[in-house]
Amino acid sequence: MGNDLPVLISAAAIDRRVTELAEAIDEDHADAGTLVLVGVLKGSFIFLADLARRLRIPHRVEFIAVSSYGSLESEQPGAVRLLMDVRHPIAGQHVVVVEDIVDTGSTLDYLLRLLAARNPSSLKTCSLLHKPERTKADVTIDYLGFTIPDVWVVGYGLDFAERHRTLPDICELPPDRR
Ligand code: PRP
Fold first, then answer.
1. What tens digit of pLDDT does each residue of 111-137 get?
2. Are 53 and 165 in contact (CB under 8 A)?
3. Ligand 1 centroid, distance to 101 Cα (angstroms)
């Protein structure tokens, strides 16, 4: 597929960083038994697939889906709703939530509260991207790929109106292309 969007993070740079993140997660969970990776749909699906295949520790994959913006007039901006829950309980297990991007932080904040209430043995966060200029929620990203400026990014799982998710690079989508 042809793509003329400006590349912000190349596929090669992503590849190297994903390996480093997997190594850090391996090291921190060497004695954790089976790690539970919770991928946040949809944006994390490519990152999660690459990350999971580089882990050496035993792990299983779960998915969770939320809507990150209040779509109803009655909802507050930043309101998050659960659309699909994980399939198996996480109590007593070591969990890493895997996100493609932390923007305002509302989604991760909501998910951490939801999952912490289920008493996992540990609960950590991994995000490929972070836009610190936009983040309002007080969330910790334990494993972070890249800090980026406040630009709209697509590719490697991230979309604009469901387009561009499968680009190999992370690209900037200029305002005149939206
Ligand atoms: C994006 C992204 C995160 C969330 C981050 O999801 O995948 O889950 O927004 O934003 P926040 O930090 O401001 O909460 P999106 O709603 O675009 O859905 P998608 O992953 O299905 O594309």
1. 999 999 999 999 999 999 999 999 999
2. no
3. 7
